[in-house]
Amino acid sequence: MYWCPSCLAELVALPEAFRCSKCSQEFPLKNGFCVFEDSELVSSLDYGLSQEKLDIEREALLSRLRFYLIPRLGLRCGTRVLSVGCGAGSDIEELNLLGSEAYGMDFLYRTREWKARGLSKHRFFVSSTARLPFPRGHFDLILCMGVIEHVSEFQSSAEGICCTRQRAPGFSTGTTRFA
Ligand SMILES: [Zn+2]
Fold first, then answer.
1. pTM listed for this prediction
2. What angle in degrees, to the nearest 10, is found between the helix axes of 51-64 and 90-97?
3. How far apart, in whole angstroms, are the C-alpha atoms of residue 100 and residue 94?
4. Which domains does the chain have, with CATH numbers?
C-alpha cells in the first residue's frame, strides 16, 4: 500500500501507474516500478553493475542483516521497515520472509534489476526521502546501509533520512559508519 506524497490519500494501483484517490495525481511505472520523484536526483544515474558486483553486494546485504541487524534490532512479525538505498533488495526479501512489512527504495536504474528478479512493485519503488509515499509515523525502522558514504550532500541527506515524518515513536535508524 502506498499513499500520495502530495496529499497523503491512498493510491490505487492501475496497470501502468498508481493514482491518488483524492487529488488524482498519477505516478507512472518504469520497468514495472512506481516513480514517486522523477528528478535528476533519482533518474540520471546509470551504473550498469556487473553480475559479479551484484552477487558480492547481495551477499554483503544478507550478511549485515543476518549477523548484525536481526540480532540487535528485535525485529518482530509486522515490523515496518524502509530501506533507503536498498540496492538489489535482498535484505527486503529476507525481512518480508521473516514476517516484516519491508519496503525498498533506490534510484531508477535499479528497476531493471528488480524486474529481472521478479520483485514486487508493492514493495520496491523509486523516490527520494523528500517524497516518500507513506503517512506520518508509518515506519518502525529505517535502514540506510552502504549509502551515506556515497552521498555528496551529506547534511541534507542525513536530515532527510533521520528527520523523515514517516518515523514512528521509538523508531530506529541503522546506517553504516563513515570517516
Ligand atoms: Zn494526492
1. 0.82
2. 40
3. 9
4. 45-175 (3.40.50.150)
Q: Which three cell numbers stand for residue 27?
A: 505516478
SS (H, E, C) 59-88: HHHHHHHHHHHHHHHCCCCCCEEEEECCCC
Query: For residue range 40-53, what is the model confidence (pLDDT) as tens digits?
Result: 666 666 666 777 88
Cα of 133 vs centre of ligand 1, distance in Å, is 10
Residues with CB under 5 A from ligand 1 (ion): 4, 6-7, 9, 20, 22-23, 25
Mean pLDDT of 70-79: 82
Please tell me the distance between residue 4's alpha carbon and the centre of ligand 1 in angstroms: 5
Amino acid at 76: R
Residue 148: other Cβ atoms inside 10 A? 17
